[in-house]
Amino acid sequence: MAEKDLFNYSEQNIRTLDWQEHIRIRPGMYIGKLGDGSSPDDGVYVLIKEVIDNCIDEHTMGYGKHVDVTIKDKSITVRDYGRGIPLGKVVDVVSKMNTGAKYDSKAFQKSVGLNGVGTKAVNALST
Predict the structure, then answer these.
(1) Quick one: average pLDDT of 70-83?
(2) How many other CB atoms sit within 10 Å of the CB of residue 43?
(3) Which of 77, 94, 105, 117 could form a disulfide with 70 if both were Cys (CB 3.0 to 4.6 A apart)?
(4) What are phi and psi of 75, to 5 degrees?
């Protein structure tokens, strides 16, 4: 009888995760293979690509003259000299799933990013 109790399913088993917790518990859903960086398809490169894709979007729209990528120790910094995220929406853009300016063509006529998820994954999985 005690063994059956282990498999009881009730309301107490159902959880709602916040965006950051979900990304951290299920990173493969967002970045694919985790890995240690030794393989070209490891998720760390997906994170870097997400940031660089945003730089490409800015450049494609005519903003930002160049992109700086700095690798130091185990840290990567990317700067695109573009318009930046409007200050009033920075927190939303980096912490609210499906928040972005690329759902229509008002701000970006061409875009690599589409779903308002990439920057959040980078934020949740970076230290």
Answers:
(1) 91
(2) 19
(3) 77
(4) -125, 140
